[in-house]
Here is the input.
Amino acid sequence: MKGLCLLFLLFLPALSCNKVTEYFRDPDTAALTETIHSAALTAYAADVAVSVIKGHANDNVTYTRSNPGFPCTTLIQISPDDYRFAADVNAVTVAGLWADENTAVLSVIYTDYHSENTTLDILGIETIPLLCEGNSVHVALAKQDISLNPDVDALLSINLNTLQIQSELIRLDVRPPDDVYVAVVQNAYFIDINTKGSFDDLEDDDYILTGGGQLVNIEGNDVEIIQEAMVNLLISSDCQSNPIDGMALIRVTGLEDQGFPELGTTVLEFRNQCDGTAGVYAATGMYVASNGKRIRFRL
Here is the structure.
């Protein structure tokens, strides 16, 4: 406690009263919601691909298939006008290499992907292993597979041998973390889709997101490193406002142009409430005043 007071006294001369008020604040959840949107879009793309391969027709979806049996390749074009996160992207293209109707490796292209501050012409994900088991679809998304403005023709021309396909599918055998402090260092996301037994109806599907990664945000002379993680975050078809179960972590380390460090960690808890908020389970640093509060959190 004495060390904490000394640290604060060292910073005190650099702070005005207004600065102190600005420093201690509620967590900024924009980066986390953006990550949730991108993971949910990937879940949606995989969801559509499984529905198509099982022979169901969907609005705003066209596709071609190399042959009627397996193995086969597919190319699926999606115009997600009626999808709940449709505002994030203008079009989605999914190339699939299918060993059978339950096992695939996908590549995905998002056209005109709208992030919080910019619009990316093309965002590509190179390989996404997919496994359908019963009413569930499992996919894995690794940070190293994501590229900005990729070579579209190369990305959509999936050409993997048997060993490479098996290597991709092994990623699905990795046990997802059950702790946000473990998930934050993984740079990977595991997505489970609950189809509820209706592969022809995508609107009632739920997504469960687990994983974490790191972002670096640079604005002028301000540099900010954002680490984030999710464990069993439930995106329900019954709630358009916020996740309704699971936990998430946001850890920010930043340096303003005045040289004052910004440090804060918060763990958010979601329970069965669809009110556009999240509970602050624990918070430290510049977020410490948020402990025990409910803060705004809208998807």
Remarks:
- The radius of gyration is 21 Å.
- The first strand starts at residue 61 and ends at 65.
